[in-house]
Amino acid sequence: MDKDVTEWSSLASSSNCRCELQTPQCDAVGSTAVVAVVSEDKIVVSNCGDSRAVLCRNGVAIPLSTDHKPDRPDE
């Protein structure tokens, strides 16, 4: 079953990507993700795209990541 899911996912993704890249709106296509691994004494976060990780401590928002955007000079 894992093999079938992997093959289907690969086929679906590649055909969708080809179609999206051929449209004039392709610059509006993107992906975002935020992952957090929490242990007793650490929080490790990773992000991609313009999604962000935020910690709330005593009602104060503390940013844990920086947005990744193509219009940023450092990108």
TrEMBL record:
CDD domains, per database record: PP2Cc
Source superkingdom: Eukaryota
Entries under InterPro entries matching the protein: PP2C, PPM-type-like_dom_sf, PPM-type_phosphatase-like_dom
GO MF assignments: protein serine/threonine phosphatase activity
Residue ranges occupied by any PPM-type phosphatase domain in the UniProt entry: 1-75
Cleavable signal peptide: none
Record-linked PANTHER family: PROTEIN PHOSPHATASE (PTHR47992)
Name of the protein in its database record: Protein phosphatase 2C 37-like
Native source organism of the sequence: Tanacetum cinerariifolium
